[in-house]
Design brief:
The protein is α/β, with parallel strands linked by helices. Helices cover about 30% and strands about 15% of the residues. Strands 1, 4, 5, 6, 7, 8, 11, 12 and 15 form a nine-stranded mixed β-sheet that branches. It has a two-stranded antiparallel sheet with strand order 2-3. Strands 9-10 form a two-stranded antiparallel ribbon. It is globular and about 80 Å long.
């Protein structure tokens, strides 16, 4: 199922009646496709109102692996085997291929590639750790959300996500948007409860990232194996909204448009901005339904079976493979959501059995695949989440770790990053940063830096007011 902030509904995409209401003839469709491609080329060079500064990094694209719920620093990349009592890591450490760097023993594939990783062990943010939405907004934008009571859900007053900024700065590439998120919205409990930070915020819906929603999952569900709610399907397949109805196959869609043209139906609102925007949306929808080659990046059917098995046949593995295909096709930012990390209970079992094994498999394979294709140097891979987990085990039955924004770990690889290093340090309990503390705004600023943007880079809102996008100071020492 395709769900995105757009005035073009899925039903309108699939019903020719919606097209004829605006009088879109076959000749106009072809002309609009040409105009759309010219617009895409212009947007790529210099979007109106947006300022792109001289490049500061080598990355052309970024794949963000987002751990929904908040991954534990103690059981991933900041092991504390000597910590006292409940602060101690629950799993054994493993030596990596870089002397002196140890990570969780359940991440052997990543341990073999530590020379590609820059592990940051001192990230923190000031968001209310009671609310996942505050952490989501911080990590996807680099800024705090506009203050409001309770969980911060999507709001046009908030800062734009990195992907939304790239949508304005770069525009679409070969018919694809600059930013795509899959396989779901980050949501509390379903549609209408999406957390802040995933949209274009005050930039307006025009720049919202495309969210490929293959069904939503609650925070503590088995993300990879539980049946999704809503119109669920597996990433790596074309969702129903991207497929032409059977009765319109074999050229019948264009025949109907041609018939409409011959009937000479009068246009409604010809020449108005609303009609032009609507027709551009129709053009894109028809291109998608016509199975144009660029949109086949979402379909992994023709990838070798052996490679698909390496990634894993679960939602995370398939999403990571789609992400690689999309950056090949020209998408600038692909955000992959991997949920299930809100382990207030069953922390040991869920982390050991549901979360770390697929992460180890998919993350490790993604790095290898990008490297094998010569894409790793120009593709930044970023690993983060809402926040970390508490340095103590709670009293739930079975027990777990709770939210902790005071310190957590993130990882960067590729895109000009020098691997084989650890930046920052937490205390012996993995509770506070004690060396090189990194506000999450600096982490996001490092992503912008890798993609070629600096502190002078600005975007404009619908009122043509400029806004600087850099939320902090990039960690230039990682490059």
């Amino acid at each position: 199922m395709l769900r995105a902030f757009t005035p073009l509904s899925r039903r309108t995409c699939l019903q020719v009646g919606g097209l004829s209401a605006l009088g879109l003839s076959l000749s106009q469709l072809r002309a609009n496709r040409a105009d759309a491609r010219e617009t895409q080329v212009a947007a790529t060079t210099q979007p109106k109102g947006a300022v792109r500064t001289s490049p500061t990094g080598t990355a052309r694209a970024c794949i963000m692996l987002y751990m929904l719920g908040g991954a534990p620093q103690q059981e991933t990349f900041d092991m504390k085997p000597e910590a006292p009592g409940p602060a101690r890591s629950l799993f054994p450490t493993i030596s990596t291929n870089v002397p002196g760097i140890d990570i969780c023993g359940l991440l052997p594939n990543l341990a073999h590639q530590a020379d590609r990783l820059a592990i940051i062990r001192s990230v923190y943010h000031g968001g209310n750790a009671l609310f996942h939405g505050a952490g989501v907004h911080y990590n996807l934008t680099g800024f705090p959300n506009v203050p409001r009571e309770g969980e911060p859900f999507l709001d046009r007053r908030d800062y734009p996500a990195v992907g939304a900024v790239l949508n304005q700065l770069r525009g679409s590439q070969r018919g694809l948007p600059a930013a795509v998120q899959l396989p779901m919205w980050i949501t509390q409990d379903g549609p209408g409860r999406e957390w802040a930070g995933q949209s274009a915020g005050f930039l307006g819906r025009k720049y919202d990232p495309l969210v490929m929603d293959y069904g939503y999952f609650k925070l503590n569900e088995d993300f990879n194996n539980s049946p999704g709610s809503g119109e669920a399907s597996l990433p790596g397949m074309m969702p129903p909204g991207f497929q032409l109805q059977k009765e319109l196959l074999g050229g019948r869609l264009e025949q109907r448009l041609e018939l409409q043209s011959r009937l000479g139906q009068q246009e409604i609102g010809a020449g108005t901005p609303l009609l032009r925007d609507w027709m551009r949306q129709q053009t894109q929808a028809l291109d998608v339904l016509g199975a144009e080659s660029t949109w086949k990046g979402f379909d992994i059917e023709h990838e070798p079976v052996s490679l698909r098995e390496k990634y894993g046949s679960d939602r995370l593995g398939r999403s990571c493979l789609v992400a690689r295909r999309l950056v090949e096709a020209g998408v600038s930012l692909v955000t992959v959501i991997f949920g299930g990390w809100d382990t207030h209970s069953h922390h040991l079992e869920h982390t050991r059995d549901r979360l770390l094994p697929p992460l180890n498999r998919a993350f490790g394979t993604l790095l290898d695949d990008l490297a094998d294709r010569g894409l790793l140097e120009t593709t930044l891979v970023a690993w983060t989440g809402d926040f970390g987990r508490t340095p103590v085990i709670n009293g739930n039955s079975p027990p777990g770790r709770d939210h902790w924004a005071n310190v957590y770990s993130t990882v960067l690889a590729g895109g000009g990053i020098q691997g084989g290093q650890v930046y920052g340090k937490s205390d012996k309990l993995a509770a506070e940063p004690i060396d090189n503390p990194v506000p999450v705004g600096d982490f996001v600023a490092t992503i912008y830096h890798a993609l070629g943007y600096d502190g002078d880079t600005t975007v404009v809102d619908p009122f043509d007011r400029p806004h600087h996008v850099m939320p902090g100071r990039p960690l230039t020492g990682l490059f």
